[in-house]
Automatic annotation (TrEMBL):
<protein>
    <submittedName>
        <fullName>Glucose-repressible gene protein</fullName>
    </submittedName>
</protein>
<feature type="compositionally biased region" description="Basic and acidic residues">
    <location>
        <begin position="49"/>
        <end position="61"/>
    </location>
</feature>
<dbReference type="Pfam" id="PF11034">
    <property type="entry name" value="Grg1"/>
</dbReference>
<feature type="region of interest" description="Disordered">
    <location>
        <begin position="45"/>
        <end position="71"/>
    </location>
</feature>
<dbReference type="InterPro" id="IPR020100">
    <property type="entry name" value="Glc-repressible_Grg1"/>
</dbReference>
Amino acid sequence: METIKNAGNYVADKVQGATAATSKEANKEVAKDNNAGVGTRLQAAGDAISDKASETKHDASAETNKQKATH
């Protein structure tokens, strides 16, 4: 039963990590956009940093759950 739970958590973490990666890339593009205001660009840069941290956290959690599910 625990293996099924870990497998489900692995999938959820992979999805959340991928979502954060997509958001990070979108925010990076806004931060580079010369037509966007300075405040908007700074906010997007900060959001990209936050998204990268979230992506890293979820990827690490996914790997942990993958290991638990296979052992």
